[in-house]
Write a structure and sequence with these properties.
The protein is mainly α. It has one domain: Tetracycline Repressor, domain 2, CATH 1.10.357. The chain contains nine helices and no strands. The longest helix has 24 residues.
Length: 184
């Protein structure tokens, strides 16, 4: 994995200039690293840097959830809180995220996009305390991946909703999948 300080520098530049080799080179320069060593610092190029950013965001979200002690919440509220932590952490870098998704939407990057989404959904469930080891392990992650992806697409849409609107969208999606209780 690329060093976190280099990833953060690349994200800061990508907010304004998008994701490119020039962005990675500038991140090296801004971090005091020799740009001639670009391939050593970012051995998998732009897509590797984006993947490493997602992994770093996953780890930071997991740590934030652990520090908050969300165990007292019910599982749906834990999931909601974990997704909120991830979204709020991404808010300052919304343009870098938009650019990263443009790169990942290229046909030859769709497999990587799926792996990143799957890992993020799994990390969210882990942060929420999921310890399932049966078929529900897969269904929970697939459902959350679909909801999270839809929420990110909504948040990054051209009408540019704010974070509270994106969280309201999340709440509606989570309510859609909540088990319905039968009236007695």
């Amino acid at each position: 994995m690329t060093e976190p300080h280099l990833i953060r520098a690349a994200v800061a530049i990508a907010n304004f200039d998008g994701w490119s080799e020039a962005t990675l080179r500038a991140a090296c320069e801004d971090s005091g690293e020799d740009p001639a060593l670009l391939e050593s610092h970012f051995p998998r190029g732009v897509t590797g840097a984006i993947e490493d950013w997602a992994a770093l965001a996953d780890a930071e979200m997991d740590q934030a959830a652990s520090a908050e002690g969300i165990e007292a919440l019910r599982v749906p509220q834990r999931i909601r809180r974990v997704v909120e932590l991830r979204l709020r952490a991404a808010e300052p870098d919304k343009e870098a995220l938009r650019g990263a998704l443009r790169v990942l939407a290229l046909p030859w990057n769709l497999g990587l996009a799926a792996r990143i989404t799957a890992r993020t959904a799994s990390t969210m469930w882990h942060a929420a305390g999921d310890s399932s080891a049966d078929f529900s392990w897969y269904t929970r992650r697939a459902t959350l991946a679909a909801i999270y992806t839809a929420m990110i697409a909504y948040w990054l849409s051209p009408r540019d909703p704010d974070i509270e609107q994106a969280l309201a969208f999340l709440d509606r999606r989570l309510a859609d999948i909540a088990p319905r209780r039968r009236a007695a």
